[in-house]
Specification:
Number of strands: 17
Mean pLDDT: 95
Shape: globular
Distance between the termini: 52 Å
Radius of gyration: 21 Å
Strand content: 15-25%
Helix content: 25-40%
Structural class: alpha/beta
């Protein structure tokens, strides 16, 4: 067992001082007690937080970070960015996928995440053929999580069509092609081969309304085979909304809610372009809005209607999505600053008439939404939860002697990135003094793989 003594820790009920944490042999917190004295064998740290959760990630896209910042056409959009993404997706082998994902997950741990929901649709080989083991690529994701030491919710993602009306997949999408039966098989294979691993869990991914059949979605989500989180891209682009209206006569969220039961196990990723009725539907469903502010800004998607959504007690979490920049602090800061710019006001994310710390409220809401969307019954510095811990380095904050909410606000708004010192996941230190234990080797492997991929004709 490991015992820690924390001068100030952010527990489920708020900030507490002199907190003793005991990690059991099973990798969970066996004891969390505030207002204590340090025992002789306890490691002492200054500030501890529950780590953040990236509820939406495409790991392979870290392999193109920064490469899509050149204008390719007079009107450059998400749809032109997608061309480079397809080029990369078409070249990656299973071995390379594992290396890229392990590198990304190492970076996430250094940045302040210990859990990621991997929205995974690179199922088949470069020609679109099924691997000898159909779950090959999904298992590589799980393996990468084990190598780096991060928790992962693997979301094998159903991808059947290129557009509304059952349009056939494009050549560059053939690797993504799956049937509902194949998704169930992949899920069962991952569950069987990672059984009892505290780091690995599973859920169901649905790529988008344009890529699936609603009858299949209804059958999958209501069957006993998939009693787990369900994630879907939705209403990310205005073009997608227009296509949905033309094909169905309804906006995307309205259409989804009219065809399946959307409840607390759902995560609607992006949901950027919503009508007022859709904001209300999503908020009242208790589903999570999966917001990815860095990627949404990078792709020019638009901005989620957070003020009206929060006013109706809507739930949300943050995702790193395209992984162009790995920073939970920047996700939250951009969410708030986008509102300040558009509303010409300050501290806008907080519910109307609620006073207090913007940083604390954003951080706490993202924790709750992230945990729910990953199917984690417990999260944070509480007994029984997986022993995940983020220790901050106070030397990297500009002001001294900060405590509680003021400290968290400073960590989110006064430095460029969350000042992570140590990171623990499942009771094991993965990051010490800002460095991951496998940082050098994983970085070298990643760079070698990327050079190989982009040297191909």
């Amino acid at each position: 067992m490991t015992e820690l003594f924390v001068d100030q820790a952010f527990l489920s009920g708020g900030w507490h001082k002199n907190v003793s944490l005991v990690v059991g042999k099973d990798g969970t917190f066996s004891s969390v007690r505030p207002n204590t004295q340090p025992s002789a064998g306890a490691e002492r740290v200054s500030v501890a937080l529950p780590p953040q959760i990236s509820l939406h990630s495409h790991a392979f896209q870290r392999g193109m970070a920064g490469m899509a910042e050149r204008r390719q056409t007079p009107s450059d959009t998400f749809w032109t960015w997608r061309n480079l993404m397809y080029r990369l997706a078409g070249r990656i082998t299973p071995e390379q996928m594992e290396v890229i994902a392990a590198f990304l997950y190492m970076e996430m741990l250094r940045a302040g995440y210990t859990q990621v929901a991997e929205f995974h649709y690179l199922h088949h080989d470069k020609k679109g053929n099924v691997y000898e083991n159909p779950a090959e690529m999904a298992l590589r994701i799980a393996s990468a999580a084990k190598i780096s030491g991060i928790g992962v919710t693997v979301l094998p993602t159903l991808y059947m069509y290129s557009g509304f009306g059952g349009r056939p997949l494009l050549d560059e999408q053939k690797r993504f092609a799956t049937t509902p039966e194949q998704i169930v098989d992949i899920l069962q294979a991952v569950q069987t081969q990672t059984k009892q691993n505290i780091l690995i869990s599973t859920g169901l991914g649905l790529h988008s309304l344009r890529a699936v059949d609603m009858a299949d979605v209804k059958q999958l989500t209501q069957s006993g085979a998939v009693e787990m989180p369900v994630h879907i891209h939705i209403a990310e682009q205005i073009g997608e909304v227009e296509q949905c209206l033309a094909a169905t006569g309804q906006r995307p969220v309205n259409y989804l809610f009219d065809h399946v039961e959307v409840n607390a196990r759902w995560c609607l990723v992006h949901a950027t372009h919503l009508a007022p009725s859709e904001v209300t539907q999503l908020a009242q469903s208790q589903a999570v809005a999966g917001l990815c502010p860095i990627t949404e800004a990078n792709l020019g998607d638009g901005f989620f209607p957070l003020v009206s959504y929060v006013a109706q007690k809507g739930r949300f979490g943050i995702g790193s999505d395209s992984n162009v920049l790995i920073s939970p602090a920047e996700e939250l800061r951009l969410l708030e600053y986008g509102l300040r710019l558009s509303e010409q006001s300050r501290c806008v994310a907080l519910p109307q008439n609620e006073l207090g710390s913007t940083g604390r409220w954003l951080y706490q809401q993202a924790l709750a939404g992230g945990a729910q969307s990953c199917g984690l019954a417990q999260w944070g510095l509480v007994e029984g939860a997986r022993a995940d811990l983020c220790v901050l380095d106070l030397e990297h904050l500009p002001l001294p002697d900060l405590e509680g909410d003021a400290l968290l606000d400073a960590a989110l708004f006064s430095v460029s990135a969350l000042p992570v010192k140590h990171m623990m996941c499942a009771g094991t230190w993965r990051v010490r003094d800002g460095r991951h234990l496998l940082q050098d080797s994983l970085t070298q492997q990643f760079r070698k793989v990327i050079r190989t991929i982009f040297s191909e004709n």
